[in-house]
Amino acid sequence: MLVGWNHAGDPRFGQVEADRYADYFTSEFHPPQYAYGSLLARWKRSFGKPFELMMPSEMGSWGEWTVAPAATLRTTAAIAVANGGSISFGHVAYPSGFMRGQVPEAVMNAIGESNAWVQSLEPWLTGAESVPMVAVLYSIESKRMLEASALSGPADDPHLQGIHRILTEGHIHFDIIDETTLLSRIDSYQLLILPDQAYISDPVEQRIREFVRGGGRLLASNRSSLYDAAGERRPDFGLADVLGIGFGDVSRYSVSYFYPIDAAIAEAIPDMPILLKDPAHKALRIEAKEGSDVWARFTDPALEAKTHRHVYHQHAHPAHPTPHPAVVAHTYGKGASLYVSGPIESAYWRTGSPWLRTLYLNGLRRLYPDPFVKVDAPLSVEVNAMRQSSRIVIHFTNVREDKAAGSKTFIEEIVPAGQIEAVVRASADRVYVVPGNTELSFVKEEGQIRFVLPEIGLHAAVILEGTDVKELVENAGKES
Q: In a 3-state reduction of DSSP, which class is residue 172?
């Protein structure tokens, strides 16, 4: 008997102690929250258990009694399996009335179409594991501390959803891990991200320090390591030495502006102050320690806008340059770190500002310039790099999550995405696309291969095989 339950392995519940007794993980997956299905899968897969996402065949939730478009069902299936899981479609026959006991043929056809598509990919899905490249720490201990205190920590976890959106839109392959996974296998990753992880336990903090000292990369933001288990603010960041910073104060303004921004991370960003706004979180005042590089500073608004005193409809304009660092780069041992002193992930989740995403990704790419897989594609394309015993499988899933005015949105047609260019640090003898086993031309360069997908619909998986692939698979998560 296999034991599982709805929301087993779900970060919003954070029941990691009980989760360890589950044989498999499962969670509901409802359109139009397509991105959240990907987030769930990335968290679940890091525990090494089989998992599924449960999609109602109806329009949005159980018991709607009207089937969703077949393209919507196939999209949810693609998100689940490209991230290493499986999909299950739920449907209940009419319990009474003139159609009691019946399942409409339209429902069976829609489910059947998606299941047939998954079946066509099964050889490249079975037993696949994520290639360890980038790890995002979602600290359950920090989550519980915030929930038990008066500190801001909204239930929708905007920092986690924000970093998920930034990285997927930046075509970065990553896993979301907890403290136990970090302690046991952080060395298989090259980059660790701490998106406003306010509390980090002493063992985890020390493990992070060893990881960076040994050559790892660390990207942290806002309150990371600034609080203890009781919710008390420490005199300084626990990881101050690794990040090359010192704590000063909390900004007295609810908004801040990134300005000036150093050329190191300014590419494709307008030459003007860039708004940073999350009503629940403020930027921190920090100092950069000797040996650190300041890549951006904060400019303050003219005043704190209030009902009786304001400049315009919302917050005030940028007016006062400050000496306070906003982005700090630092070298520690053989590794390096980057720290952003504002709530950039949650601000991106709240505002969708493309300039915040661009700034973040510019910094990430300076910190981590040579990932195992590097992709240039439209924003809608999510990348997952998986490995089997004899090959690398790179999934490209094309899902644009649109929002309608006050209603749910369903995917009725797949809009193609084209000219996807990828560089993989690998040597392969054969590269092909599935399903269909279509050979794909590629160029061998020093230590890597390069290929271009001219166009994809909903999904394409590129398979790398060859005499060197077995060694490649075994060492894909290690530094070259």
A: coil
Determine the residue type at 409. T
Element (DSSP H or E) covering residue 319 = strand 318-332
Instruction: Judge whether 16-128 and 132-367 match in fold.
Output: yes
CATH 3.40.1210.10 fits 132-367, yes or no: no
Extents of the domains making up the chain: 16-128, 132-367, 373-475
Longest dimension (CA), the chain: 78
Instruction: Count the helices and strands in the chain (H runs, E runs).
Output: 12, 24
- Helices within 170-295 (DSSP H only): 179-185, 202-213, 240-243
> Which residues have C-beta within 8 Å of that of residue 271, sequence separation ≥ 6?
none
**What six digits make up the tokens of 159?**
């920092």
Sign of the Cα torsion 220, 221, 222, 228 reads negative
How far apart, in whole angstroms, are the C-alpha atoms of residue 461 and residue 133?
18
User: Which CATH code, of 3.30.70, 3.90.1200, 3.40.50, 3.10.20, is assigned to 16-128?
Assistant: 3.40.50
Residue 289 and residue 160: Cα distance in Å, rounded?
A: 28
DSSP 369-380: -S-SEEEE--TT
Q: 3-class secondary structure for 134-166?
A: EEEECCHHHHHHHHCCCCCCCCCCHHHHHHHHH
Rg (CA), the chain: 23
Q: pTM of this prediction?
A: 0.96
- What pairs with residue 298 in β-bridges? 258
- Assign domain 373-475 to its CATH architecture: Sandwich (2.60)
**Tens-binned pLDDT, residue by residue, of the chain (480 aa):** 999 999 999 999 999 999 999 999 999 998 888 999 999 999 999 999 999 999 999 987 888 899 999 999 999 999 999 999 999 999 989 999 999 999 999 999 999 999 999 999 999 999 999 999 999 999 999 999 999 988 876 567 999 999 999 999 999 999 999 999 999 999 999 999 999 999 999 999 999 999 999 999 999 999 999 999 999 999 999 999 999 999 999 999 999 999 999 999 999 999 999 999 999 999 999 999 999 999 999 999 999 999 889 998 899 999 999 999 999 999 999 999 999 999 999 999 999 999 999 999 999 999 999 999 999 999 999 999 999 988 999 999 999 876 666 677 888 889 999 899 999 999 899 999 999 999 999 999 998 999 999 999 999 999 999 866 556 655 654 443
The number of C-alpha atoms within 13 Å of 266 and in the hemisphere containing its C-beta is 15
